[in-house]
Amino acid sequence: MRNIRGFASDNNAGVHPEIMDAIHRCNVGHAIGYGNDDYTRTATDKINALFGPGTESFFVFTGTAANVVGLRSMTQAWNSIICAETAHIQEDECGAPEYLTGCKLIPVEPVDGKLTIEGIRPHLKGFEFEHHSQPKVVSITQATEMGTVYSLGEIRSIADFVHGYDMLLHMDGARIANAAVSLGVSLRDATRDAGVDVLSFGGTKNGAMYGEAIIFFTPGLTGAFKYLRKQSMQLGSKMRFIAAQFDAMLTNDLWKRNAGHANCMATLLAEKAGSIPGVKINRPVQANAVFAILPHSWIEPLMKQFFFYVWDEATSEVRWMTSWDTTEEDIDRFTSLIKNLI
Fold first, then answer.
1. Sheet of strand 317-321, all strands in order from the earlier edge strand to the far edge
2. pLDDT tens digits, 302-327
3. Domains plus CATH for the chain?
């Protein structure tokens, strides 16, 4: 099988050795299924301690599931969910949020990938009017799909604004580790203490094999969760294999080391590629994503050796993602290929 290293997605990287070791260690003997095992208790206790008293956390298989089941816990079918028009729940989840929650998604044009109060405000209408879907949740992505990072102040401002309407703030944190490292803050600082009610905590993009966590910070949202998770086909019988990964990720700051490396590699890639005539880095590099515009004729030959995605065909904008296992050699080889095309 042809193995193409590249910059398509941090999903494409393998499993971090410390996480793989944790999987091997828990693959001994029997353990009670469906999360009633010591591995799951240890991991959830560690998550809950990290984020503070009253936190409740649950494991699911995928990022889409983390978003959808989390949103189901926050809404009724007559509600609406406000998100950026670039949000993963709007663009990349095959309609699953609407199909499974029954809610209407209301996409808003973002600014550098981020929602603003000015963008949200016009959609807060029709309250108590039975002909109108009832706004209930604002969902933000951190780091955003455009590679940008909300400041703590931006999150707090949105949270306070939303809570003023008796609404809730959801965070798609598939890359929350990258965002927290970029901001130089703890995971708790970047989420709970900034006013987030429910977090989809990503593992897969940061060195895990698979698995995400849904983390609740606001009391009263988890009463039906165990039924919603089962109904959504996300109750893992061998849950210990997800739990062991999160336990490893939260041991000795592995989450921070992985994300920090990915972020540094993105900065380096942007610096080296951006210095090449014909390459324009056209968006801020704040986490582990680099967006660039380059001559269309360069894209196909580059992709044959380093796979990545075209973001906008019309403008020849591409997206390069770095990961925990991106190396300086990868970047040097890639930028050398670009130079050879000039």
1. 280-281, 289-293, 317-321, 309-312
2. 998 899 999 999 999 999 999 999 99
3. 17-249 (3.40.640.10), 254-341 (3.90.1150.10)
